[in-house]
C-alpha cells in the first residue's frame, strides 16, 4: 500500500446520496476510501459506487449478505460490476463459499464479518452462541480461510488472534475505531486508530467522529497521521 490514506475507511452512514456526495467533497484529499452500508445503499447509494470509483476513490460496500447459498452467489455476482473494492458477507460457511463463487475472478474482495463490534459477551449469549466472543471470532476466521475469503471484519481487540489464524496475506478490517476522547456510541469493543495500527490492522472504519465533525477533512487527516 503506497498511500497511507487508504488505511482509513470513512463510513458514509447517511440517508441521502446527495448529502453523502457533499461530505466526500468536504473531506476532499483527506480520505481515499469510503464505506456504503445499509442506510445509504437502500436510499439510492448503490449508484454512488461507480461515481466514486470513476474518481479514483475506493468503496467498501458493507451489505453483510447472508441468505441461502444461491441467493448470496447471485447477489454478489450482480454487484461485481459496480466497482467496489470490498464487499461484506456474514461469516457463515455456506454464505462465504457462495460469495466467493459469485465474485469470480474480477469482483470485489470478499470480507467476512465475524462478530459485530456492538456485541459483547452478554449479547452473544443472548443470541444463542455457546462460545465466548474471542473463540467464536477465531472459529469463524478459520472457516473464512477454508472458504477462500479475502479478509476478516472483526474488532481490533481480536485482531491479534485473527492474524494468527489467517496469516499475513489476508486483510483485517476493523470498525469500532474511535479517536481518543470521542464518544463510543453503540460500539462496545473499541480501540483508537493508533492502537489499531499497532495491532497490525490493515484498514480501520470510522464514521461519526468524522462525519459529525465541523471540519471532517481535518479529523480524517489527524486519524491518518495517528496511524502513520
From TrEMBL:
InterPro entries assigned: Aldolase_TIM, OMPdecase, OMPdecase_AS, OMPdecase_bac, OMPdeCOase_dom, RibuloseP-bd_barrel
Identify the metabolic or biological route this protein is part of: Pyrimidine metabolism; UMP biosynthesis via de novo pathway; UMP from orotate: step 2/2
Q: Which GO terms describe its biological process?
A: 'de novo' pyrimidine nucleobase biosynthetic process; 'de novo' UMP biosynthetic process
Q: Which GO terms describe its molecular function?
A: orotidine-5'-phosphate decarboxylase activity
Reaction(s) the record says it catalyses: orotidine 5'-phosphate + H(+) = UMP + CO2
Q: Give the EC number(s) under which this enzyme is classified.
A: 4.1.1.23
Q: Does the keyword Lyase apply?
A: yes
Q: This chain belongs to which protein, by name?
A: Orotidine 5'-phosphate decarboxylase
- Organism of origin is Methylobacterium soli
Its organism's taxonomic lineage begins at:
Bacteria, Pseudomonadati, Pseudomonadota, Alphaproteobacteria, Hyphomicrobiales
Amino acid at each position: 500500500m503506497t498511500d497511507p490514506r487508504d488505511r482509513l475507511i470513512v463510513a458514509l452512514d447517511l440517508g441521502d446520496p446527495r448529502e453523502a456526495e457533499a461530505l466526500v467533497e468536504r473531506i476532499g484529499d483527506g480520505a481515499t476510501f469510503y464505506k456504503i452500508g445499509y442506510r445509504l445503499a437502500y436510499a439510492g447509494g448503490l449508484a454512488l459506487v461507480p461515481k466514486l470509483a470513476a474518481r479514483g476513490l475506493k468503496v467498501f460496500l458493507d451489505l453483510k449478505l447472508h441468505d441461502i447459498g444461491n441467493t448470496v452467489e447471485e447477489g454478489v455476482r450482480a454487484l461485481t460490476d459496480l466497482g467496489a473494492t470490498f464487499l461484506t458477507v456474514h461469516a457463515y460457511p455456506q454464505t462465504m463459499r457462495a460469495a466467493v463463487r459469485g465474485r469470480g475472478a474480477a469482483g470485489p474482495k470478499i470480507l467476512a464479518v465475524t462478530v459485530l463490534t456492538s456485541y459483547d459477551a452478554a449479547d452473544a449469549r443472548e443470541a444463542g452462541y455457546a462460545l465466548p466472543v474471542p473463540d467464536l471470532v477465531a472459529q469463524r476466521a478459520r472457516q473464512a480461510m477454508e472458504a477462500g475469503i479475502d479478509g476478516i471484519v472483526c474488532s481490533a481487540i481480536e485482531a491479534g488472534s485473527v492474524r494468527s489464524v489467517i496469516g499475513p496475506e489476508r486483510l483485517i478490517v476493523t470498525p469500532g475505531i474511535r479517536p481518543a476522547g470521542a464518544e463510543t456510541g453503540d460500539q462496545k469493543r473499541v480501540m483508537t486508530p493508533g492502537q489499531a495500527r499497532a495491532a497490525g490492522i490493515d484498514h480501520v472504519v470510522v464514521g461519526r467522529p468524522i462525519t459529525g465533525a465541523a471540519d471532517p477533512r481535518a479529523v480524517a487527516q489527524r486519524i491518518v497521521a495517528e496511524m502513520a
